[in-house]
Amino acid sequence: xxxxxxxxxxxxxxxxxxxxxxxxxxxxxxxxxxxxxxxxxxxxxxxxxxxxxxxxxxxxxxxxxxxxxxxxxxxxxxxxxxxxxxxxxxxxxxxxxxxxxxxxxxxxxxxxxxxxxxxxxxxxxxxxxxxxxxxxxxxxxxxxxxxxxxxxxxxxxxxxxxxxxxxxxxxxxxxxxxxxxxxxxxxxxxxxxxxxxxxxxxxxxxxxxxxxxxxxxxxxxxxxxxxxxxxxxxxxxxxxxxxxxxxxxxxxxxxxxxxxxxxxxxxxxxxxxxxxxxxxxxxxxxxxxxxxxxxxxxxxxxxxxxxxxxxxxxxxxxxxxxxxxxxxxxxxxxxxxxxxxxxxxxxxxxxxxxxxxxxxxxxxxxxxxxxx
Length: 372
Known about the structure:
This protein is an alpha+beta fold. Helices cover 51% and strands 16% of the residues. A hairpin with a 2-residue loop joins strand 4 and strand 5. The protein starts with 6 loop residues before the first helix and ends with a helix.
């Protein structure tokens, strides 16, 4: 596995970092959140080709690697970007590329690349925890070959402004995925703001009618595709968290160098130096394992182990960096007027997304035991 970035990836990182710093500064971000609106970055993402980073060239993308996408995601975490990049590019477009029919790919992917289409993945329910099969939303087949979806999903990131929802529902012989327009009759979206500033919604489906052409992948076989997508989501938030940790450590280091106490910078006190050293070590431990998730694994079990190992380590590192930053900053660290608290919230939210550390530790142990 190559840990160093290529020249192309370095250029990509530089361009994304410059774009985010110019168009999504901290004060701008606070204004976007206060107004419950997306930033103006989406059209810039499209112009730079970021929305098609992993989409094949036949549909207008650049056919890049997951590692290329990770470079972008790390910069979005560093800049605390609130736009639904993971939901649309990593999950939505990823699922369409993997499981969609030729007609779905031809119709949807070019629109994603052009910035004309946003996705949201509706799969979490109140009692499902992290079990993808533990859902009550159902899709009953009609006499005409279509389906009627009934149920409720929660914590649907980006749903309020999504053009299409990818919905998991129980069908007679298993789990199926459906592509549903957000404005379809019977769809009700109750929008809110999550702790990290991203928009999260509860979505209800009241006898929503879809056709057989709206099924993503083969009917009753959606679970394997959903599991694959959720692992990709876990990889994405690991990269995002890595960027947030890097920025938070830099912010904390600057504070230690400039904050004066007893006539000297507080960073000169040895006890605080030790704490800050622990934070930087934690960041490097995360940085050493996250790239392993972007490798091409021959089998699903090995991929799942790599993802779970990274999610556990990133979760542990995020706690050390986040809590350390708050303690070293003192009271200012938890105010909404200062960036440190926003990074802390970003890391806290990422811990719960696509399986928390406890879930992934248990999964890693179970997969390792199966190999014995």
